[in-house]
Amino acid sequence: MRLFTLLTAAFCAASVTASPPFRGSALAARQKASLPHSFQWSSSAPLVFPKEDGRDVAALKDPSIIEVGGTYHVFASTARADGYHLVYFNFTDFSKANAAPFFYLDQSPIGEGYRAAPQVFYFAPQKLWYLVYQNGNAAYSTNPDIGNPAGWTAPKTFYTGTPAIIQDNLEGGYWVDMWVICDKKDCHLFSSDDNGHLYRSQTRLVDFPNKMSKPVVALEDTDNKYALYEAACVYAIRGGSCPGKYLLLIEAIGSDGQRYFRSWTSNKIDGKWKPLADTEANPFARSNNVVFERGVSPWTKSISHGEVIRTLTDQTLTIDLCNLRFLYQGMDPATPGSTPYNSLPWRLGLLTPTKPKLY
After folding, report:
1. How high is the mean pLDDT of the chain?
2. Whether residue 244 has pLDDT greater than 70
3. Which single residue of 66, 195, 222, 305 has CA 20 to 30 Å from 252?
4. What residues form DSSP beta bridges with 120?
5. Exposed (0-12), middle (13-18) or buried (19+): which is 304, by Cβ within 10 Å?
6. Which InterPro entries did the record assign (predicted)?
7. How many CB atoms within 10 Å of residue 28?
């Protein structure tokens, strides 16, 4: 963590405007600062495990995380043989994350039944927290207080059913991983189908969460569905020369069968996505650009469904390049290949950058 602090301090110094007589050189440095064109990460040991509390949970998956006033709030999927649901916990220090009490959200008005892949954000115009998740549709619940897990409302959905364009492409896949991000005028809903398509719908900011448009294909790979698989997340970027840009991350399955993340950028949420670090040789996060902290055994080969830790809470989903951290799910590579999917032992770990490289 000390190395990460020094590196990011040097990186972010380029974004600070100096007082005369150094203003010109500082501005020149600021103009050069941008997203890395390649990434190197250090991973923690597994930080959070399922609890032995009679729930028979096999895995913690799909974390969504936000930091509010020094407290990290995490929503995640729980998986066991009979299906998925949601859990909430919070902590102030990652070293104590595993000791945080779990609140299973079937105890809230979200209720029982299939619920998975949460995303949490604060919608400032309504002064409400939104929890977006999948329940066979694109669902959401709201809550005025993120720290009150019993306060989430019963599920509502963005669509009346599966949109036609998704249904037409769904054979052999699943409609998964809903994600909402807003700009000044519109809110956009992304989702995937495990068949190489990323979809996007939108509605006006003033109408959210209602009047969601028919989805369009935002990005696709018709040659290899595993290269554009699931777990998409989109962020607005703050820092360096990047304001006004957006970062898209999508989980892929590599040629070795392991999960990893690819990345793209765009000037608009509904614009064209330009590859950033999007190959197995140069990924956003994969086993070949992740090392493990000193004394930590390489406990996973997959860097799977996760999220950048957000400290700015509103619906723009803005992240700061000077404080880039990624909470993800990983799994013991010795897990037998015959293990049923719902019983795979996913755990949560944390990535921090080690070598920022600028354009």
Report:
1. 90
2. no
3. 66
4. 131
5. buried
6. GH62_arabinosidase, Glyco_hydro_beta-prop_sf
7. 10
